[in-house]
Amino acid sequence: MKELEREILIIGAGPAGISAAIEAAKAGAKVTVADEHDTIGGQLYKQIHKFFGAADNHAGMRGFEIARKLEQEAKELGVEFWLNTVAYGIFKEGVGIVRDGDNFIVKAKKVIVAAGGIENTTAFPGSTLPGVMLAGAAQTMTNIHRVLPGKRMVVVGSGNVGLIVAYQMLQAGAEVLAVVERDDHIGGYGVHAEKIRTAGVPILTDTIIKCASGKTSVEGVTTVKLGADGAEIAGSEQEFNADTVIMAVGMAPLTELLWNIGCRFEFIGELGGYVPVHNEFMQTSVDGIYAAGDITGVEEASVAMEEGCIAGIAAASACGHISAEECSARCASHIDALAVLESGEYDGERSAARAKKLELYKASEK
Amino acid sequence: MSQSMRITDHPILGADEPKKKVTIYYEGTPIEANEGEPIAIALANAGIRTLYVTEKMNKPRGIFCGQGRCGSCRMIVDGVPDVKTCSTPVKDGMRVQVQHGLA
Questions:
Q1: Which residue ranges make up each domain of chain B?
Q2: Predicted ipTM?
């Protein structure tokens, strides 16, 4: 098999991966970023809302604007991008990739895995019908390709993604008939919920989709209320004349590559499932393998960017471009930013989850 | 959904810039597409939602994950089966067919 040598290989060109690339290149490293898709920016391209957040300098910008800015910056720093390139495994010999239909082993001094997350799904009778799709697909259609997935939608899930996607469908000219949430409270931020409520969209808590019906695609949706015992309440069904169902029921870290090389994992429910343990410099339990972004736990893009910066600086330092002191100095502001980002509404949980990963990393070092 | 599903004006993204058009053939029927957009998007715009039909139960499938991961959008394109149409760009004159099972 053909072999290629690179200094730092980053897998994933989303917010974490490009941020890592920029910081590593600034520190003097030679950086290559591989991504299976044909664009740089990952999911940022679907995000047409303004980011908020106190600490990072992208607050107030829209996702696709951040993607463009990061891409330009990385290219100016000479970062090499391999698009349409699949990294299928990390082995002792190197990273296995398929590029232009050809198979390579990439021998890199350091590898940063920023593979992102994968959307969860839910099942109900009719959930396989055309017209039922994940929030990411609806956003890609609407915000990138500018084709509406349908005209009358029901959104499943009231987390931030569900609320934002509902608002984006309204912006694009579709009707959103309801957002349903099986929990007894809205999952996402109040500010997002308020926007769609103001637009007249009901957010139905303690409610699930009983079924979607239609011959060859969605022609109607039936919801049903759940009682305190979690059972359906007979007679509480509601019919919606929907042609589309959008699922926004959480995400999970996309961790296969890190399992494959033997990283130590821990189950942390708040972060979406099994996540790799790492130190404050995003180094995993396997020497030379770093992780950043949703792969270390599903959070916002702002968190992914800060983690990416840290991983990039640390990997460049480990290659000998900057001293350990300089590495700590450069990472400090990003580590502080993470503490701020994870100190909000829900975030006792998230900062505790981060502390747990760091602690377990330390334990694994002994 | 027979008329176009294109978003011509958008409060954030602005007016849609005119794109170069190409023609693809869905089961022999000509469909107008924007150059470079994914096949499944061009079909969605034309109101076509069934891209794949399951082998045993004959159940229709359409765009689901929209990023080449789930396989729910695979079709026969220019005679080649299992093409993920959500992430494969259109080319002028392309022939696409609904795929039944393993095809």
A1: 21-100
A2: 0.96
